[in-house]
Structures are given as structure tokens and as C-alpha cells.
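From the thread on structure requests for the teaching lab: each student submitted one protein with a one-line request. Submission from student K.M.:

"Model Spermidine/putrescine transport system permease protein from Aliiroseovarius sediminilitoris, C-alpha cells only."
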Amino acid sequence: MNDRPELFRGNRIFLSCIYWAFVLYVFVPLFLMIMMGFKDSKFIGFPIRSWTLDWYTGVFADAEVLSTFGYSIAIAVLSTLISVMVGTWIAVLLEGRKFLGRTAIFGMTVLPALVPGIISAIAFRIYARYLGIEPGMGAIVWAHAVHNVPFVVLVVMARLSTLPKSQIEAARDLGADPLVTFIRITLPYLVPAILGASIFCLLLSFDDFVRSFFLGGYEPTLPVLIFAKLRSGMSPEINAIATVALILTAAVGIWAERFTRRMNKES
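Reply posted by the TA:
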């Protein structure tokens, strides 16, 4: 009996070590990347003999980089809006209903999330050519939206499964039709899930490289621009661009997490 507290304490120490090793594994490279953006030299490496903000100020002074940021954000927003609308509609259609072909529809819905990125990008490229869709913003938005729909469906279906059926039944007993019931009862309940799925899809689209590379036109997205700059070698400029993108996505993620938590408490 006296060995159990010692065993529990040993397991807790072991798990703590694993946790902090994982934290170091994730955050040390990010910290080094941010530091290299302050190096007063065109070459990446230690030691850092002098520091400068020129690389970061250059990011905000470079019209090409700013245009690429705006282009990537526009693609992410448009693809997220499409994927959220389509994914929510499919989730409402599938959750809590039994009909012929439901399993097949669900399987085809989640399939884009399971296909490897390079295979998906090649398939989209061939299909876009078959449909006559020119490479560019429209093709990228289409590919990103199709890839993001499964994540919206899974998140919204999980939230729908916890919706009290009594609320829907009460609304129908009071004479509300299915559309009014959805707008007044179901949709407000789904807001936290929809917001969470939207942020996830937004970040996925903003960070997507393979589909953007295969379906892009002459104007690159941010990951494609960074890849193009990498061909001439690593430089603090790339670190500065990546750091700005990291801060932007982290700020959006933190805000969404806090907002979603507050919405869940209110509901």
C-alpha cells in the first residue's frame, strides 16, 4: 500500500518530463527562427554578433510581401466561407437522420481529408483543366474549400449530437417550421462549433502549400512565395516573413479559443 504514492509520484514526474520535452521540441525551433530574423547579416547561423530590425521593417515595406499576405488572406476567407456553409448544411443533413446512402455520403464527405496532399493537388489540377478552370485564385479557393469541408462537418456534427432534442420539439410544438427552428434554435447553438471550424479552416487554407502551388497562377500565396525565396537559400528575410505570419495566425487562434470558450459558457 505504501508503494502506491511512490509509484504515482514517479509516473507524474515521468509524464512531466515527457510534456516539457515536447514543449521544448516545438518551441525551441520557433524561438530560433524568430531570433534569426533580428540578425544583422544575410546568412543564417550562430553566433549573432549584431542585431537589427531591418528585416522586419522590410517585410512591411515590401509591396510584394504585403500583396501576397492580402492575397493569401482573401483566399483563406473565401474558401472558409464556402466550406462552412457547405459543411454545416451536410452536417445538419446527416446528424440524427437515417436514410439510404447516409454512410456513402458521409464517407465521400470526409474522403478529401484522408487523401494525401500531393495526390489531392494533382487530382484537382487535372479536374480543373477538364472543367476549364484557369489556374489562379478561383481554382485555389475551390480546392481549399473542398479540402476543408470534412473538418467543418466533423466539428458541427459533434456539436449537433449534444443539442437537447427537447428544445427542437418545443419549438415545433409552438408552431415553428423546420426553417424557423433551425434559425432560432439550432444555428445559435452551433455558433461556437462553426466559429472553431472557421478558424481551423482559415489557418489550414492560409498555410496550404501543395494545392496552392499546383493550382496557382502568376500571383503566389505566402507559402509559395516563401518556397520561391528558399531556392536562393535561407536568409533572415524569410525568418522575418515567417515570424509575422506566425504572430498573425497565433493571434487569430488565441482570440478564437477565448471567444469559443466564452460562447460555450454562455450556452
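TA comment: The mean pLDDT is 84. Residues 3-36 form the longest helix (34 residues).
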